[in-house]
Design brief:
The protein is an all-alpha fold. The protein is 70% helix and 0% strand. It is globular and about 65 Å long. The mean pLDDT is 86.
């Protein structure tokens, strides 16, 4: 069910009103059933996969808590993680890894083995497609059609539970329904934030009393989220799609504007989803973690990742970077750890070399920044950190570097060469011809004004005094009207739903 649909608005109102009319026992049942319905709307069969991971990790948590520290306990965790990663790997990367393996066999001159592997893998895929009511596949490209929506998000959330139980930071949840709700809670089920059990599980055991101030704050955040999605992100998508869908027919300026538009689109789209999710949960009393903190105001790539998709970046920090050694190792090993984390982050986003390059570039940025800082320290070079012009230069440079990586991210379904072609045109010939756009001049200027409003608004909107009834009843209806009159309603799915 898409957040930017009338169906969701009706669903949200009905579920929230029913939630406050029930006791605690009825509330968790309501939310679990509502979350099942919310997920099943996309494709009912997907819920079987989700239920399988829930059962595995629920019992894994109980067994981990009962098992004393030792090899057996570690193997229980490994089995749980392999089950989750295995499900994720099959549905998300089966075709991608099979193509790589077949290509290596071909490269090694083993044509017969390559054909056998290809036929066997295709038979496996067709059996799975049959289970999900899909037609037989002639190639692995159709594997995308059976990718359960939000699989990467709820898989990582489930894995964080078993890891925290293993580490002794979280008691195993004995209430199966509550654990299932932890994984399936509808606001953040398909695109995060990726929550930790310490933050959320205890909240599902709490009976939240109706609080009009919480409801107002939640509705306000949802309204801003809808504004970012339907008014800004989906309008920017028109410009981005125009350039990226036919890059060879566009000049450098058009591709540059398309890259800028996608940079704004993905922020408005994903942070808008997070705002709707956090706001919807807040109307019922739940507190979800912050997922964005004005990332495009960052002055370095490191700072950008402390502000962008915070729930994922902290997940990789706690469950991959630190176990690899984190900052406790030599500088060379630390840089390698950082690079590994960003490569895995790129792969997490999807089965595409473009995603891997996107992650690798962010890792390379971090390595180059570390080497630069060490070199400057050796040479005794310092810069005036409190100088406004220097701060602005850092901000602009960081924004440009991030924007260039988004070209690979946006290009994930096309050959890698397309992304390099687009960047080459942007860098070498940005003003070789007039700007071509699906929007007329007035619409472009309006879009520029919206982007300026977005950046200005992001600095203060969470501090809007919603407790002041006059402010709430002025700003909230205004946002709703802006969404209705200026929103782009073309059933645009949220970008991160595919992950």
């Amino acid at each position: 069910m898409l957040f930017n649909s009338l169906q969701f608005l009706i669903f949200f109102v009905v579920v929230t009103l029913a939630y406050y009319s029930l006791s605690w026992r009825g509330r968790w049942v309501l939310l679990l059933l509502a979350s099942c319905y919310f997920y099943a709307v996309f494709k009912p069969a997907y819920i079987v996969i989700l239920f399988a991971t829930i059962v595995i990790d629920y019992y894994a948590g109980l067994w981990l808590e009962r098992t004393p520290v030792g090899p057996r306990r570690k193997w229980l965790l490994i089995v749980s993680l392999i089950s989750n990663i295995g499900i994720l790997a099959f549905f998300k990367y089966f075709g991608f890894f099979t193509d790589i393996f077949v290509g290596l066999l071909d490269f090694g001159g083993l044509d017969g083995a390559a054909q056998s592997v290809d036929r066997f893998a295709l038979r496996v895929l067709n059996k799975v497609l049959l289970l999900f009511g899909q037609e037989s596949a002639a190639s692995f490209s159709i594997v995308d059609t059976i990718l359960p929506i939000g699989l990467s998000f709820h898989t990582f959330q489930a894995m964080s539970y078993t890891i925290e139980v293993y580490r002794g930071h979280q008691k195993a949840e004995r209430h199966f329904g509550i654990y299932a709700l932890y994984v399936m809670f509808y606001p953040q089920l398909v695109a995060g934030p990726i929550e930790r059990p310490q933050n959320v599980l205890h909240q599902f055991h709490t009976h939240f009393h109706y609080d009009w101030e919480n409801v107002k704050a939640g509705l306000m955040q949802m309204a801003f989220g809808f504004f970012k999605k339907v008014v800004i992100a989906d309008r920017m998508a028109l410009v981005a799609n125009y350039g990226f869908d036919n890059p060879t027919e566009q000049n450098g300026l058009t591709l540059l504007v398309a890259a800028l538009a996608f940079t704004i689109q993905i922020y408005g789209d994903f942070s808008g989803y997070s705002d709707i999710a956090i706001g919807a949960a807040r109307t019922m009393g739940f507190t979800l973690m912050e997922n964005f903190r004005t990332p495009y105001f960052s002055r370095s790539i490191t700072e950008f990742w402390r502000r962008w998709h915070i729930s994922l970046s902290t997940w990789f920090r706690d469950y991959l970077y630190i176990p690899l050694g984190g900052n406790r190792v030599s500088p060379g090993r630390r840089y390698l750890n950082v690079f590994i984390v960003f490569l895995v982050s790129g792969l997490w986003h999807g089965a595409s070399w473009n995603y891997i390059i996107w992650g690798g570039l962010h890792g390379a940025y971090q390595l180059l920044a570390g080497w630069r800082d060490r070199a400057f320290a050796r040479w005794g070079l310092t810069f005036p950190e409190d100088n406004k012009a220097y701060q602005l230069l850092q901000l602009v440079l960081t924004f440009v570097l991030v924007m260039l990586t988004w070209v690979f991210f946006r290009n994930h379904k096309a050959p890698v060469e397309n992304a390099f072609y687009i960047i080459q045109k942007i860098v070498t010939a940005p003003f070789e011809g007039p700007l071509q756009s699906p929007l007329n001049t007035a619409e472009l200027l309006f879009s520029v004004g919206l982007v300026a409003l977005l950046f200005w608004k992001e600095k203060f909107y969470l501090t809007i005094p919603t407790r002041n009834s006059l402010v709430f009843w002025t700003v909230f209806p205004l946002l709703c009207l802006l969404c209705y009159f200026f929103g782009v309603f073309t059933s645009n799915q949220f970008i991160y739903f595919q992950f």
